[in-house]
Design goal:
Protein name: START domain-containing protein
Pfam family, one: START
Number of helices: 3
GO molecular function, one term: lipid binding
Order of helices and strands: EEEHHEEEEEEEH
Radius of gyration: 17 Å
Strand content: 35-45%
Helix content: 10-25%
Distance between the termini: 47 Å
Keywords: Signal
Shape: globular
């Protein structure tokens, strides 16, 4: 059942928009339950109104803000770090900060592969420079593929908070219903496992990647606003 690890790519583009996606990444006094700390990654879970839990992952690494967006938009590289992603295709970019994406995730026979269509957009707070990426369902933009099961009930948000010395905190929140006859306990376990493995890969690929030092128009890097040692 390793195919359930697809859940994190919510990152890439995924998910049905929810007001919960706008929640901050604070855990003190919240309903988030700590799952584990490993490889400089903090993993949490939270009970939701549905049978599938919400998941949150946080890490701190060296990176530009723009580099994270460039990595997400490099669809050919997606399967190399997003758990169980087979193919990610950009369908449209109606605005500079918006993407319409189709993602396909592997599943072992006889289970049909999963896919999803998402519309994502990012915005940056001009004062704090915090960058927020929200992804919403856009299934109506592409007819269903008979050989695949389209994911339902998914949502996610990414919050990128810059710190001195080019440190960047990346916080992900999301959830996904695998669809089909999958036990909820297994879906919850694999949701956590998939999120964690994707963050492990993210930490390996982003800091020293080709995406660094390539500022995107509309994204302000904190070089001058948050000097080293501030």
């Amino acid at each position: 059942m390793a195919w359930m690890q697809f859940s994190l790519p919510v990152l890439l583009s995924l998910l049905l928009f929810s007001t919960e996606a706008l929640a901050d990444c604070e855990v003190s006094g919240s309903q988030w339950q700590h799952v584990k700390s490993k490889h400089q990654i903090e993993l949490y879970r939270r009970k939701s109104d549905s049978a599938v839990d919400d998941v949150m992952a946080k890490t701190l690494l060296r990176s530009d803000l723009s580099a994270f967006i460039l990595l997400l938009r490099d669809t050919e590289q997606g399967p190399k770090w997003i758990a169980n992603a087979r193919q990610i295709t950009l369908l449209d970019r109606p605005q500079t900060n918006q993407d319409l994406v189709h993602s396909v995730f592997n599943a072992p026979w006889p289970i049909r592969d999963r896919d999803l269509v998402t519309r994502s957009h990012y915005e940056q707070d001009p004062d704090s420079l915090v960058l927020t990426l929200i992804v919403e369902d856009a299934s109506e933009s592409l007819p269903k593929i008979p050989t695949m099961v389209r994911l339902q009930g998914v949502w996610s948000s990414w919050t990128l908070t810059p710190f001195p010395a080019n440190q960047l905190e990346i916080c992900y929140q999301g959830s996904a219903d695998a669809a089909g006859n999958i036990p909820h306990w297994l879906a919850n376990r694999m949701l956590l496992d998939g999120t964690f493995k994707t963050f492990v890969a993210l930490r390996k690929i982003l800091p020293n990647s080709i995406y660094q030092n390539k500022p995107l128009r509309g994204i302000q890097e904190p070089t001058e606003k948050i000097p080293n040692g501030a």
